[in-house]
Amino acid sequence: MGVMDRISTMLEAKAHAVPGQVGEPREAIEHACELEHDELRRVRRAAAVEHERLALELVNLDESVVALDAQARDAVALGREDLARDALALLRAVELRIAPVAAERDRLAAERDRLAAGEGRLAAVFAPASPSAERPSGARLRADPGTR
Predict the structure, then answer these.
(1) 16, 31 in Cβ contact below 8 A?
(2) Rg over CA atoms, the chain
(3) Residue 100 covered by a domain
(4) Which of 3, 82, 91, 146 has a Cα-to-Cα distance from 35 of 20 to 30 A?
(5) How many Cα atoms within 13 Å fall on the side-chain side of residue 28?
(6) Are 21 and 138 in contact (CB under 8 A)?
(7) What's the CA gap between 98 and 75, in Å, rounded?
(8) From CA 99, how far away is CA 108, in angstroms rounded?
(9) Looking at the domain assignment, is residue 117 inside a domain?
(10) How many CB atoms lie within 10 A of CB 127?
(11) Within 10 A of 10 (CB to CB), how many other CB atoms are there?
């Protein structure tokens, strides 16, 4: 994070701060946590959209495999070996495309799971502490409004 980003974060935090609490490090940390949480949600949404796109592409590729196989069989039945060879060449190309798309879909699913786990850890660390709960040092960053 560059100096300008830090200054921008501080100014945003101060703009959102209560007038009597300007300059407290806690508000900068809370604001940074909120920004991080928003970014994490945005990335998770993008990963989910891409995962769905890849799943749809796999369905289309599978349908192409079935159609090209049928075309090759029909061409052989009609005695058109040239058309059958063309259909089989296209079939091989489609089959070669399936493996990388499936691998990318699986990678995105793993990334989505990793992001969900990270979001859970982020929520656990930065959740407001209850007044009766013992607060481990550094584990809870939000304090009760009456404490300093």
Answers:
(1) yes
(2) 27
(3) yes
(4) 146
(5) 11
(6) no
(7) 24
(8) 14
(9) yes
(10) 11
(11) 16
Q: How far is CA 54 from CA 40, 96, 103, 110, in A?
A: 21, 15, 10, 14
Domain containing 30: what range? 26-124
35 within a domain of the structure (yes/no): yes
The DSSP 8-state label assigned to residue 140 in this structure reads -
119 within some domain: yes
The backbone torsions φ and ψ at residue 27, rounded to the nearest 5 degrees and listed phi first, read -70, -35
Q: How many separate domains does the chain show?
A: 1
Q: What is the pLDDT of residues 35-71, one digit of tens each?
A: 888 888 888 889 889 999 999 999 999 999 999 999 9
CA terminus-to-terminus distance, the chain: 28
Using alpha carbons only, what angle is made at residue 16 by residues 43 and 128, rounded to the nearest 5 degrees? Answer: 70
Residue with tokens 């592409």: 57
pLDDT band, very low/low/confident/very high, at 127 (cuts 50, 70, 90):
low
Q: Choose among 19, 28, 21: nearest CA to 1.
A: 28
In the 3-class helix/strand/coil scheme, how is 52-68 assigned residue by residue?
A: HHHHHHHHHHHHHHHHH
| Angle between helices 81-126 and 25-77 in degrees, nearest 10 | 160
Rounded CA separation 128/131 (Å) = 9
